[in-house]
Structures
1.
Amino acid sequence: MPIPFHSLRLLLTALDLAHTTRCRPGRAKPSGLVLWDSSSVELGRPASSLPQMGCSSSLPDRNAGRLDGLNSENSMATDSKNIRVKLVLLGDSGVGKSCIVLRFVRGQFDPTSKVTVGASFLSQTLALEDSTIVKFEIWDTAGQERYASLAPLYYRGAAVAVVVYDITSQETFKKAQYWVKELQKHASPGIIMALVGNKGDLHEKRAVSSQDAMEYAEKNGMFFIETSAKTANNINQLFQEIAKRLPRASS
Amino acid sequence: MDSDDSVTDPEAHRPDPSLDAEATVEQMGSLTLGEAGDAAGAERPVGNGFLPADFCAVAGEIEVVEEGSPVSGDLAGPSSLGGPGACRERSGRGDALPSPSSSGYAGERGSSGGSSEIEDADDRETMLDDWSSGKRHPDEDDGSVSWRKRKKHFFILSNSGKPIYSRYGDEHKLAGFSATLQAIISFVENSGDRLKFIRAGKHQVVFLVKVPIYLVCISCTEEPHEALKRQLELIYGQMLLILTKSVNRCFEKNPKYDMTPLLRGTDAVFSSLIHAFSWNPATFLNAYTCLPLSYSTRQAASAILQDVADSGVLFALLMCKNKVVSLVGTQKASLHPDDMLLLSNFIMSSESFRTSESFSPICLPRYNPMVFLYAYVHFLDVDTYLTLLTTSSDSFYHLKDCRIRIETVLVKSNVLSEVQRSMLDGGLRVEDLPLDSSLRSRSLTTPELSSSQTGIGGPSGLWHFMYRSIYLDQYVSSEFSSPISSSSQQKRLFRAYQKLYASMHDNGTGPHKTQFRRDEDFVLLCWITQDFELYAAFDPLADKALSIKTCNRVCQWVRDLENEIFLFGASPFSW
């Protein structure tokens, strides 16, 4: 489905107008992965000195410091076994992005559709077998067209992008491909991308074959998984797979 | 008959305003509407300005059509306003050819029996808060009988006639109907004129032109057209809140641009706003209301919000449902009551805000319709939410920190529990209006105001009031007392207030100072001074002199309680 770029651009222009200071691309650090490091904890930094990429966790020194400054457990969270990672979910509206997140974070599934506005922020920690603890900071973005122009706000500096489509809708699969292309162009290099076919419980209505999706994912260096937020099938596996692929801090 | 009930009260500008009961009764005596239930008079629209012309378009070419006159083929005829889209027979058969003489929109003639069912259903749904689930009846279109019987339609369309939003039915199926509305508007515009509204029997069609957007309301609710126009303005504002005015540029490049995808998923927002048009006084009073709290509690909330605002937050707003707990803005920035109404409607009607903290672009149309601000929204409990607005798209983590700080302080200082308690306790009750001794002695000698009657309402038959402080842009309204406990009675009172407001602010005949009006449902009393506007409803049998005295006491009571029911110290409103 072609996206009417002119309209998105215009909305983006409005956004830009709202900025008091514009972001220069050069200032964004490419790495989205944040390792908690005691040397990076800086308390009491004035808010006005927040970097442009405040919406991301791409700048470990300040963001980590600020957050840790408010959490008393920060001292124990400074070893290299703790990984904090920014993850963004993208995809057409109604494919179940919020449902995946809520299933993962709260173990809940709410069949009534709740349209996400802008983006919701949730976090969840996952302990791996090698005793690494991964804290996901998840940006669950709205799928509506009017928010498409705002996506960079949320995926800038992300270490992981989860692109979701609905296996019962070819259209959402096309939209997913649009997001993959957009991420390849504009996201941090080295971003880990996952292609997720959701609503696996509705396989009798399947419109996108696993084979096609798998081939597409392989071609684009993504890993592919089919999930069902409703039955919780593969939801934890999705995040465990992501966690396994995260680069580890060298000693 | 029409400039019936409004009198100028020369006393109103005294430094300590109080209505002089005797003098005002004298003045009002000759001006009061038929007291013994003059039904015809009471049911007339209050708007004094628009008679004798029912159809008040300024266009010279459009003929004035009186209610009930024969249907004409002219564009302005009461029944042809729908043109091809609406000129179908009531049987609702498919694509009938445009037929100027067919019965008109929603066929108000000779169908009262048949139409009542759906109109009742319409009401019932409103009461059941069905609006929250998004669009109602998406399968309908202008060919459906049920669609045409809806009491109140709202449409947004582009000036090329493309549908953008419809309260009922699928926008895309309403393309023909939209094109017809566009044709009517542009027909008048082409003659260098502007269409304000059309009256057609019971129906009013009200237009609002915000090039390249047109907004239309078709209603048979007997609300004054000024009120409907204001509702269209709010709907337009709600659209801007979601998209900003820069959406206009889409139409500059492509006049045929289809805007519906940009508003996808916002049906619940508009439904809830339209629902507010029949219960929330803020939709016509141009004011917001505060949750009653002790002065120190509100001060505690304001102090922590101020702290945060000083760190680069444009506005910090703590609200409980539609009521403000505290509001703080940076210097010189002020939040318009309309923006607060639209913002709180947007937040409360979007379920996703309740799930987790959010960071979303929103536009405050009265603050700056061209740009997005960024709103950090977090629900502290089921009804209480904190909104932090900033101009910087990168402030999420900062605002998150601010919220954590605010929440900690609010919990520690018991503000949150006080807020919950106040929600449970409710607002001012007319039963609690302090008695003054002179009135008590008098009411003892007045048989119809014996204690058995004051048991169902406040003193002297006071049922309800709303007090709007002009300088603060805030209003306070009492809880509904037992005589108006049912939702249909409350809606009737709401509509009566709405009419009262419109007639008091009518540019043609106003502004007025006082109005006393009696019909079979209520005695309504309105009193406007430089400082406040008071709207009060009494038992229909209430004594006029006592009502006026009671209004004075309500004003005194509100002044005595002002520290608890109003928010002071919010930056001065200067726009």
2.
Amino acid sequence: MTKIDITLTVNGEEMTGRAEPRMLASDFLREVLGLTGTHVGCEQGVCGACTIRLNGATARSCLLFAGQLEGADVTTVEGLGSPRKMHRIQEAFRRHHALQCGFCTPGFLMTVAEILETEELRTDGDIRDALSGNLCRCTGYEHIVRAVRELVNERDGVTA
Amino acid sequence: MKPAPFEYLRPGTLEEALVALDHDDAKIIAGGQTLVPMMNFRLVAPERLVDINGIAELSRINETEGGIRIGALVRHAQAARDPLLKNAFPVVADAMRHVAHLAVRNRGTIGGSLCHADPSAEWPLLISLLDGGIEIAGGSGTRTCTPGEFFFAPLMTDLADDEVLTGVVLPRLPAGTGMAFDEIAQRAGDFAVVACGATVEMGGDRIVSARLAFGGLSDVPVRMADVEQAMAGATVADIAGAVAGCADGLEPNEDMHAAADYRRSLAPVLARRVLTAAAGRAGGRE
């Protein structure tokens, strides 16, 4: 199949890459644009490791084709922060040991960024429910929930 | 885990989409939350993929004369937040909470869910419960189907290969009608083992009319006509008796998630909960 030029905005910057339309968006971000922060786990929409923001809302990038990204506005984990200048969500994960191997972490970070904007998250049960689309095989989720709880309290002006 | 090659088309209008579908092996992609995994597994390998995400008119929710029209491209998350739907059919938001996970709800569409016709899915059940009219456009014009006409079996519907499901019209229910939805699933976001929705209209302490629908009990969503008839003129105290054994005549699927007997036994439990909740909400009493 012939490759096409795909132009999109990634983390605020306009980028163009050449790929077959059938390439998975997760592969396009990693292999064509070189943004390897987005991780690829199951490639069937189950694990959540490849979660990105697409036009503002989280989406699994393994369930999108590169051709569909033409004109899109994408945020990847690279758009959150960097090792030298971490985003407060990344800081909270570090502080609470909310990761061990780190494979699932980019997906969690992108999901947490969205739910802090869109969900009330009154209880830890609400947090677990909102995170249920992201799988972690190391932490048992406990420390992830603690990190998110702290971020929610910060957001809501609650002092624990 | 990578899809087979395909020709990718992204029509900007419904007319262009219908032209693009005039092909031996074309498939529509909307949210892609079911189709893309199937393509990644190469269970399906269409030669041509027609992406309808650019057709803005399909993404709207608006009031019509007798009800509310939901465009086929409306995402589950959008439907759950929509003020028109929240007001007229709060049961939609109740049901959307059970659809997979956040990122899937952000992408998956009502049209895709109806076309996929999974018998456990929430939208087919809701459209059956609410007597939705399913709008279909084809080369020779448009038509409207009832849920009974539309759903044949899992993955099989009345939609032809060269047609597009464009939306659903939900006829307005009498003011004060109570609605409820619940389901049993093994984990949050899993497909329901059995799902149940109900509407109840009350007059004083009596039930004037009620509707009851299930997913997961048959090849297609089912309405329980016998229970609905028994509920007319009954009281809330009569619900448990009326729903006892309501699924005994049905032949649910047996699969790794549940045995047929277990599914049948869940039906009256869910029916009682959901009808009672709907009655409690009727007449704005909640």
